């Protein structure tokens, strides 16, 4: 498995609302078209209204590459910059847990 945790900080509340719309549209496409994307969740951060946390888990690195090559993901990656003040990405190496691990 291959995963990411990404923290996005939006520029302001209006940008956060527009970013959330972009995330929603993209997420629907991911759900419908990516069987190798096991988990793709987006969270607001309590007490920090401009922050969003993405948790992404893929069956393997190939599934991640398929995800990244989708037109709707490329559109998301290009459009998101308009709304963001910062982005932090952590690549995750799965060790143990409960859930989609089989």
TrEMBL record:
<dbReference type="InterPro" id="IPR007138">
    <property type="entry name" value="ABM_dom"/>
</dbReference>
<feature type="domain" description="ABM">
    <location>
        <begin position="2"/>
        <end position="94"/>
    </location>
</feature>
<dbReference type="Pfam" id="PF03992">
    <property type="entry name" value="ABM"/>
</dbReference>
<dbReference type="GO" id="GO:0004497">
    <property type="term" value="F:monooxygenase activity"/>
</dbReference>
<keyword id="KW-0560">Oxidoreductase</keyword>
<dbReference type="InterPro" id="IPR011008">
    <property type="entry name" value="Dimeric_a/b-barrel"/>
</dbReference>
<keyword id="KW-0503">Monooxygenase</keyword>
<protein>
    <submittedName>
        <fullName>Antibiotic biosynthesis monooxygenase</fullName>
    </submittedName>
</protein>
